[in-house]
Specification:
The structure is a homotetramer. By secondary structure, chain A is α/β, with parallel strands linked by helices. Chain A folds into 3 domains: 1-91 and 176-192, D-Maltodextrin-Binding Protein, domain 2, CATH 3.40.190.10; 94-161, Periplasmic binding protein-like II (D-Maltodextrin-Binding Protein, domain 2, 3-Layer(aba) Sandwich), CATH 3.40.190.10; 193-315, 2-Layer Sandwich (Alpha-Beta Plaits), CATH 3.30.70. Chain A is built from 9 helices and 14 strands. Chain A has helices at residues 20-28, 41-49, 68-76, 113-127, 140-147, 160-165, 216-225, 259-271, 297-311; strands spanning 10-14, 34-38, 55-61, 82-90, 94-97, 108-111, 131-134, 155-158, 169-170, 182-189, 201-208, 231-238, 246-253, 274-282. The radius of gyration of chain A is 23 Å and the shape is elongated. The N and C termini of chain A lie far apart (60 Å). The B-C interface holds B 39-40, 42, 62, 66, 68-70, 112-114, 117, 120, 132, 134-136, 140, 180, 214-215, 217-218, 221-222, 225, 228, 230-236, 238, 240, 243-244, 246, 285, 287, 292 and C 39-40, 42, 62, 66, 68-70, 112-114, 117, 120, 132, 134-136, 140, 180, 214-215, 217-218, 221-222, 225, 228, 230-236, 238, 240, 243-244, 246, 285, 287, 292. Chains A, B, C, D: Residues 10-190 form the Prephenate dehydratase domain. Chains A, B, C, D: Its EC number is 4.2.1.51. Chains A, B, C, D: The record marks 183 as: Essential for prephenate dehydratase activity. Chains A, B, C, D: This is Prephenate dehydratase.
């Protein structure tokens, strides 16, 4: 009997290699995975939809690399996708230079515009007036610095792991105006079995409100409240087809295998014109959910048994 | 093979014969039923609990014969009972006299205190000052008038059907200060299969709120609202064991066989310390319930199938 | 200069003297008051409306003497009235007899039907089978027993204070199937300044829901919830003019002088077709209300000052 | 008598000139205004806080130039600011070239990364594989193209108005993968009198939920619902100080001068630990708000008069 070798997994991601998204990818991709950099978030997701990648890694919240609204919209713009995991990456930059460059040599620094916006205070205070040379990613400037003969700048701001990757040196490893910042990334795949329930899970939904109905948002949220479910994120997203209509992108605490999440999905499906299930997955924080009284699986089961007894004519 | 003759049904009721409760009984009891008058509502219900009667007929709302709060309390004070039907009886009295008596002969009138209170204006206007002689029921005065040699009064106020029953004559058949009044009665039996769903049904519940929780009433009502269920009656009833705690006696529109009623029962069972199901039965008004969008059985089934597809890994 | 003697106050009440309502009257009426017994609750209130009485004392909840629904309806059926006080009276009966009568002599007992219903168990257990002779009130049987030569019964069930009033003796002073029962009475007058705020107050309202609006009850209750106000009583009352429409009789915790009660009244007035204010008065329990965070007068004042600063262009 | 010449207004904006933000600025800035380009949104706002600018123009929603989350956060990170106006700018790009350049000459195109992401499909379909050269803004590429001897690219994607500004030519004026896209900008100033009420207004708030309170979001939204106020935008924003706490950035329909908005502000101020008022201003859509029944100023005034009559002792 011969062993069948498993094909390596293919991961698309908001490229190139060396960005924070890439750091998030490294948290979840097995070592032998095939890495497919994509030019933007919609492209990374398209590769999963077309079967050219098994998973995509993209930013979803507070990104220094853009793509957040793009991600929310691209997730539902096309055939069905589901989130399989979320990853947190601390956002601090390294000031990468070629070996031998000193701080006082730096006149221009290359990085992505968002990254620049998050480090400008630090740079101004420590290096004085230097010029920003925009790059297509947080890794692209470092790459150019390493490879080009005349890059036009003396330093690049990039993720710490990228410095060595590019054969550069770091003059500082925690460049950030707002220390402690973290960005959230997600791993996206085709619909299929959910990651197993851990007790510290999240479920992401896109819910559209019915037309013309005042108090519709409150009614929708009552579906969650009636089952004691907290939301960790809610964002209204305009719907293209008409002024003043909104869908809501929601992260709810719980897993599709939790009875209370199933109950809220049935309720939302009943009263909302569209409910898109975007996956249940372990929350990156790992904080266990303590269900409110009356909302555990056992409570739901007891409730159903109560009704079944009544239907059977027993009080 | 010989046919088995079905035993006649036994009905207890807030007696005696000839009252409005008796008129309600006649709406539901087959002609060959055995009628068991009871002295009060708790006794009528006790006869069902003990198996001495199959059903009890008692007033539940706006009664001229008392017993309403008594009924609400007695329904849940003891082993389980369920409401099987409700009946409406228009409340108008006949002014019953012995043959030969004229209006101007009347000096005293006998009837139940509640009945007197509802006719006093009519009497004062048409008969002038006459004395009230209280009786134990709306039929008892008429009975005494018919049977006693010296009843001590010349007339009795009783339900129209009672006049002939007692061999009396009526001087007027619509004595009432508030014409058009109607009283609601219920038929109560042991737990068992519910009356079939008609699309115009009611479900009666007693729901206790959790201790010490502000906004508890609102949370409880959200369970109904989240399933689009209207309430046709709600009454707070103090709970004996502590000042300031309340249970709620509720009539909800719908039948135990409606998915939305099952869903609300599961929800209430989860969050309330006590939920007593007191029966689903056709509403006497016969007005069909038009479920709000998203609350029909088909909507619930579609919602469950949606969740099942997700659990099976299909989007 | 000569002192002006104040005219004595006139109190109508659900008569006659010697009933539990009379005991409630004695809790609030000054010793020199003029007492005007009325035949029923509407009449007692009518005497206040017409100016023939200053106040009326009538039962409002769990009465042994009837009149509760009658009271709720009569309060709003006519010109405006307001509740000025509430009183609690413990419900236990005395078994009154003429001097010399022994328990074993008793064959028939007279009292009001409601009273009889509340003592029947006690009587049956201790006296065996005795006959009930209905009376127009809980005092009337005792009066007849004291005054009539041949009353037709040997005992009467009446309030304890009535025994001596009628010159009778008591064979037992705590006749009751349900010991510890209490009935609530109210003192009603013409609109005018409210009784002073005590911090343990109630406000009684009758609120009509808008026609044809699903979830109307929830919206109405949200007005209370949005100001953190608990309800100690709520009862749906059918409105005569159409099937399926309801008004709600409500006791809310708080006083008209509380900002949160004023705010809820403004809110109800905005969204409900009819709001009848039936008075703010000290609760008989005397239990102090602890306002929920953010609902004290100071919180409302701080909120208004916040808005005034904004309107003045200061942040 | 001599005329006093008014000093020209100073506008900071997310620079440089020629971007979509600049187009938004042109909608509101008088012709003689002083324009102060800022490197990022926090800087643009800082210039207003420091008094170096009277107003700042920055993107607030769906921007192609980034800065949206940055704007939400920067508005409340520092001394008080208020939104004075909002402006909509249609997002379509011009493909700008030096006179004489033809489509087939284009090998590389410069623009801001976000702009590139929104046009890539259009470009790929019509120009085939071309290289993206990132720029610091949607105007910067065009500027370099116009001014540099060897810019390194043959075309730039920029706002239509920028083509002529830079002395370039346009090969197409509606480059966009998603035609009809619109971005929302705001004009921000120091706290002061609000822009006059137009009947088509918005109010922007940042509201923090109380700690540790389940259902807190629902309670907060009930404050809006109890006054019939619709929200046109809601976004949860994590609060730095603790995992799992959220503030909500909200656009509500209505003006600080509307009674219902004042009432909701008082309510929020009472129950939320922090409420930041960020201005009332005419909505760019100009769609008039039709207040729900019972929520007009007249309804609030009638409600207050009702309470005042009660306080004065009149029913």
């Amino acid at each position: 009997m011969s062993a069948t070798k498993q094909a390596p997994l293919r991961f698309s991601f908001l490229g190139p290699a060396g960005t924070f998204t890439y750091a998030a990818l490294k948290q979840v991709a097995p070592p032998d995975s095939i890495e497919i950099p994509a030019l933007d978030v919609p492209m990374a997701l398209r590769l999963v939809r077309s079967g050219e990648a098994d998973y995509a890694v993209v930013p979803i919240e507070n990104s220094v690399e853009g793509g957040v609204n793009a991600t929310l919209d691209a997730l539902t713009d096309g055939s069905a996708l589901q989130i399989k995991a979320e990853m947190l990456v601390p956002i601090a930059f390294s000031l990468a230079v070629r070996p031998g460059t000193r701080r006082e040599d730096i006149r221009a620094i290359s990085t992505h515009s968002h990254a620049w916006a998050q480090c400008r205070g630090w740079i101004a205070e420590r290096l004085g007036p230097v010029v920003h040379v925009p790059a297509t990613s947080t890794a692209a400037g470092a790459k150019t610095l390493a490879e080009s003969d005349s890059p036009g700048f003396e330093a690049a701001l990039c993720p710490p792991a990228t410095v060595k990757l590019m054969g550069l040196e770091s003059l500082s490893d925690d460049v950030a105006d707002n220390p402690g910042a973290v960005t959230r990334f997600i791993m996206v795949g085709l619909p299929g079995p959910q990651p197993e329930r851990t007790g510290a899970d999240k479920t992401t939904l896109l819910v559209q409100l019915p037309h013309d109905e005042a108090g519709a948002l409150l009614s929708m949220l009552e579906q969650f409240s009636a089952r004691g479910i907290n939301l960790s994120r809610i964002e209204s997203r305009p719907i293209g087809d008409s002024l003043g209509r909104y869908a809501f992108s929601i992260d709810a605490e719980g897993h599709l295998c939790d009875e209370r999440i199933q109950a809220v999905l049935i309720g939302l499906h009943r009263v909302c014109p569209q409910v898109v299930f975007l996956g249940s997955y372990p929350s990156a924080s790992g904080e266990r959910i303590r269900p409110r009284p009356g909302t555990s699986d056992a409570d739901f089961q007891a409730g159903r048994e109560f009704v079944e007894r009544l239907l059977a004519g027993r009080a």
